[in-house]
Amino acid sequence: MSKKVLLLHGTDDSPDKNWLPWLTKQLEQLGYDVACPQLPDCDVPDRKKYNDFIFENSLYPSGGVIIGHSSGAVEVMNLLHDGRADKVHGAVLIAPWLHLEGADVLSEHPEKFGPIHGHGNYSWDTMKSKATHKILLHSDDDPYCPFAQGMEIAELLDAELISYSGHRHFTPNPLEEYSKTFPGLIDLLKKHSIV
Q1: What are the DSSP calls for 107-151, one per residue?
Q2: CA–CA–CA angle 49, 78, 34 (5° rounding)
Q3: By CB atoms within 10 Å of each CB, which of 1, 46, 92, 182 scores lowest?
Q4: Is the pTM higher than 0.85?
């Protein structure tokens, strides 16, 4: 297993917001080499643009771990689908979505959220084979990414679904604890042999 980790932030976000700096530090203390890049033009996340950026900058952690939040979690799926991707040890998807239908906030802005998910054209068997350990974290009250879609992704990806209640989108509004940390995440990653 490689000691490399790629962390992917969500839409209109950055590596220095919410719990990403905390997670970066925690993983570095465990001996991991962590890349948490500013994704290009993240106000309109784009599958091709993100994939090319990651591979052209040698950020893909072959044999390591990929962790993504929101559109960053969708990008984890995109990377596993990409023909340039080698197998990783672990893939962690936090609050992803699969399609705009049924996602009220997302479906109101297809021009913003459509380009990231590739319109569901995934080879799930290929994606399943590209990660040894796969977990998906989702809250039953996520206002952006429907819980039902998280369950669907977990089933299609053969990932273990870790369900939360009342944690919304794992961001600080309105849950202040997510402004600086992600309570229990490191223990969860250890429990599921991700790190």
Answers
A1: HT-HHHHHHHHGGG---HHHHHHTEEEEEEEEETT-SSS-HHHHH
A2: 80
A3: 1
A4: yes
